Amino acid sequence: MKKISEDPSHPSNVPVIFIYDQAGEISGKISINEWRTKKEEAQLLNELEIKLYRESIQYYTNREFAKAEDILLFLISQTDYTHYEYVERLANLYRRQEKTSKEKELLLKARKNIAAFDTSEALIKRIDNRLEKNAIFTKKSPIFHIY
User: Fold this and answer.
1) What confidence tens digit (pLDDT) does each residue in 32-47 have?
2) Quick one: which of 11, 89, 9, 94 has its CA closest to 56?
3) Full-model pTM
4) In sequence order, which ranges of the chain are alpha helices (DSSP H)?
5) Is 83 part of a structural domain of the chain?
6) Domain presence at residue 20
7) Which helix (H) or strand (E) holds 68?
8) In a domain? residue 85
9) What CATH number has the domain bearing residue 82?
10) Structural domain that includes position 105
11) Alpha carbon 104 to chain centroid, angstroms
């Protein structure tokens, strides 16, 4: 019996994956090899994000706030303010340093970008609660009286 070998380099022998848009229409297609490459790249980026986030937490616990802030700002900009865990950690850092205006600005940007998603009601409520606490904290900020 002779084994039939397929030539994967031939375009008709390479499996494809159809890409659909939000309306359910086919917007394109990619080969399985391209999909695997993109998946590997995405996994490497995800691993890099995790490592950077862990490093920022390490800086945060060591009270090296400037380094932690830099890493968190990078991660937030990479995720376009949609990864709330990064936003919340940076907001905590700003609160700890009593930079309430930066905290408020960060939360408002995150709220705006997260609001674009339909399934983000809980996150928006969480941001709103935090913004209310920020407003209360700002009003009750310590004022030193000299008696």
Assistant:
1) 888 889 899 889 888 9
2) 89
3) 0.66
4) 32-61, 65-78, 84-96, 100-114, 121-139
5) yes
6) no
7) helix 65-78
8) yes
9) 1.25.40.10
10) 29-139
11) 18
